[in-house]
Amino acid sequence: MRTDPPSPNEMRAQLTELLQAHEALAERLRQGQAAFQRIARSVWRVQEEERSRFARELHDGVGHNLAAMLHLISEALASLPDDERNRHARDELARAHAIGDSTLQDTRALSRMLRPQILDDLGLEPALRWLARSFSETHGIDTQLDYHAPPAGIDADRSTLVFRLVQEALANTARHASARRVAIAFDGRGEQASLRVRDDGSGCDIDAALARGRQGASSGLGGMRDRVRLFGGSLQFQSTPGAGFGLSVHFPLSDASPGASP
After folding, report:
1. d(CA 195, CA 150)
2. Which of 36, 96, 189, 233 could cross-link with 228 by S-S, CB 3.0 to 4.6 Å?
């Protein structure tokens, strides 16, 4: 058994081996992380494609059938004389028409929530403006959008990411905030795009909300952060009880941008 200490050359050789082993392990970890992100983004993309397919089926299938049914009810109602003998039948047809019309509106709203056609047809900015306007009209909350488009455009995956983040942030405001105003700001003029959403509502305890999400009570916040990380980005929440809720997101506009994950 060797008892004398290793020579300086031997120590340098051992250190070199350790460094090389460390670098090899770090590279394998980077490759594993990149592979995981590719798989996770593929799963996320498939989920969005399924949402889009289901939204089209609701709109083009169920929606059109309901519209046709309403037309038939209207024709039947118009064909009945407006007299005492037909009053009950006319009342029932009118009630059926009202129920059918309400169901049609709910179906269209569900279709838009699953995947608004405007996002695919016209792009991110019109989709966000539609979302802000619809949210304001539905909830009576003043919702403003400040949008600066990326000079080279934004791809479909990142458009969907931004839309879903804003959608979830607004849903959080509607559920919990008791807000009067919401400000949305998107800026794509740099290599790192930024998104900020801020309301003036009651705020929340972010750590508690994230903990509830980890325990299975859906808050949506943890899922938002996970989606941003798939694109090499970061997300921070800003909120304290009584002081409003906000989020700040930064992510690269392409996988080759500085800061993007490999």
Report:
1. 12
2. 233
Query: What is the phi/psi pair of residue 192, to 5°?
Result: -105, 115
On the CB side of 108, how many CA atoms lie within 13 Å of its CA?
11
Q: Domain of 21?
A: 1-115
What the block records as the tokens of 234 is 């970061």
* Residue 122 forms part of a structural domain: yes
Taking 50 as the pLDDT cut, the residues of the chain under it are 258-259, 261-262
Q: Contact, 163 vs 147, CB < 8 A?
A: no
- Do 37 and 82 lie in one domain? The reply is yes
Q: How far apart are CA 109 and CA 60, in angstroms?
A: 13
Instruction: Return the pLDDT at 182.
Output: 95
Spatial CA neighbour of 177 closest among 239, 224, 129, 131: 239
Claim to verify: residue 104 and residue 171 sit in the same structural domain: no
pLDDT digits 0-9 by tens, 56-100: 888 788 888 999 999 999 999 999 888 888 889 999 999 999 999
- Give dist(CA 240, CA 19) in Å, integer: 45
Tell me if 260 is assigned to some domain.
Answer: no
Residue 159 belongs to some domain of the structure? yes
| Residue 261 maps to a domain | no
The pair of structure tokens assigned to 44 is: 């996320």
